[in-house]
Amino acid sequence: MYTQSFNVPDQANDTPTAGAAASLKAVPAPLSISEAALQADFDARIDADGRIEPQDWMPEAYRKTLVRQISQHAHSEIVGMLPEGNWISRAPSLKRKAILIAKVQDEGGHGLYLYSAAETLGTSRDQMFDALHTGRAKYSSIFNYPTLTWADVGVIGWLVDGAAIMNQIPLCRCSYGPYARAMVRVCKEESFHQRQGYEALLVMMSGTDEQRAMVQDAVNRWWWKCLAMFGPPDADSPNSAQGMRWGIKRISNDALRQKFVDATVPQAKVLGVTLPDPDLKWNETRQQHDYGAIDWDEFWATVNGNGPCNKERLGTRVKAWNEGQWVRDAALAHARKQQARRMLEAA
Ligand code: BYC
Fold first, then answer.
1. How far apart are the C-alpha atoms of 256 and 248, rounded to whole Å?
2. Which ligand 1 atom lies nearest to the CA of residue 80?
3. Is the pLDDT reported for residue 22 higher than 50?
């Protein structure tokens, strides 16, 4: 926690003089004044829409919230490689295989930028992985559903990455610098992911009846899960108010969900698929679409570890971590050897 060094009390001022020790000991005035000043400085920077950087003082709760959100986001990217990775060996053409490999690799890269951003807050990558592997950390609910057909890969690109972009564009303006900067690159790549998915679906929709039915079936299975991805309704979102006050979240869960629905309806029309919601219709007064009720019980069951693929996803990650131990050991041994060689040469 090197960034908290400003918190250390000034020894010269804090050391009590003989005889006055008992009364002075209980008065943390210099520290609290300096903390209040640091807090005021932090608040002013947030109010002015400024950026907080790793070396800056920040309240402990801000740091914790960021570690929670960024590490969960990183885990989502890494676990998110699995449902689509499942189709790399069965992609229908060389072109689709090359695109899918690139996309899945990009998701791995996003995870790595995000772990690096979280590390600047004083939490190690090992700690974050341990939280994931022991089930203490969350990752996006959406990756606990199976990819049953090739159309699922296209629908994940179109809808899952589409929802992710909607959520992530505002994160490019997040108040924490390293997260915001990581998100700029992530969003550029997500945009390619969304387009490749949509284009793959357009091709399938111009194919056979069987292919069209496959796309519609995938849309039916993923639509509601994508709406839930934005998180609980604002009224049931315990972290939103503070996250928005701190400029971490810029747009609320419900507002982002609405933007996603409004953006996706015309895309579905062009594609020729039906979104599986009989209550979905344009509301002239609101100038937005109304949509039906989301099954929040199902969402929470999935978030809490009881979705169709939770155990499989976590098991796969833990297995990969254990089987990769020799790679990490070898890389560390190599780094140590290199360092020893450099020191010998310098001596
Ligand atoms: N799934 O108070 P709330 C991708 C949790 S991957 C699971 O609204 P907050 C991709 C939430 O964590 C992109 N849990 O929380 C990769 C909280 O629990 P804790 C993933 C969820 O943080 C591969 C509780 O519910 N994107 O693009 O203000 C292939 C109450 O929620 C979910 C991100 O991670 C969920 N869906 O808002 C393809 C974006 N929703 O932590 C694509 C970054 C909520 O208090 N994260 N919860 O125990 C965020 O923007 C925010 O953290 C959220 C939640 C909007 C997700």
1. 14
2. 23
3. no
Could you give the CA distance from residue 4 to residue 63 in angstroms, rounded to a whole number? 11
Residue recorded with tokens 């209980």: 26
**Residue-level length of the chain:** 347
In Å, how far are 4, 75, 111 from 49, measured between CA atoms?
22, 28, 26
**Cα(323) to centroid(ligand 1), Å:** 28
Q: 97 CA to middle of ligand 1, Å?
A: 29
Which residues have C-beta within 8 Å of that of residue 235, sequence separation ≥ 6?
Answer: none
CB-count exposure of residue 263 (10 Å: 0-12, 13-18, 19+): middle
- Cα separation, 102 vs 94, in Å, equals 12
CB < 8 Å & 24+ apart, contacts of 177-183 = 177/51, 177/52, 177/53, 177/54, 178/53, 178/54, 178/116, 178/117, 178/120, 179/66, 179/70, 179/114, 179/117, 179/248, 180/51, 181/117, 182/110, 182/113, 182/114, 182/116, 182/117
CA of 68 to the centre of ligand 1 (A): 10
Phi/psi for 280 (5° steps) reads: -75, 115
CA–CA separation, 63 and 123 (whole Å):
10
And the tokens for 278?
A: 């009989």
Q: What angle do CA 73, 157, 148 make, to 5 degrees?
A: 100
User: Which three-class secondary structure state does DSSP give residue 134?
Assistant: coil
**Ligand 1 atom closest to the CA of 186, numbered from 1:** 27
Compute the distance between CA of residue 86 and CA of residue 145 in angstroms, rounded to an integer.
Answer: 12
Is 302 touching ligand 1 by the criterion CB < 6 Å? no
Model pTM? 0.90
Q: What is the pLDDT of residues 318-347, one digit of tens each?
A: 999 999 999 999 999 999 999 999 999 998
- Reduced to 3 states (helix: H, G, I; strand: E, B; else coil), residue 252 is coil
- CA-closest candidate to residue 268, choices 208, 221, 205: 205
Which pLDDT tens digit goes with each residue over 239-255?
999 999 999 999 999 99
Of all atoms in ligand 1, which is nearest to the CA of residue 68?
Answer: 41
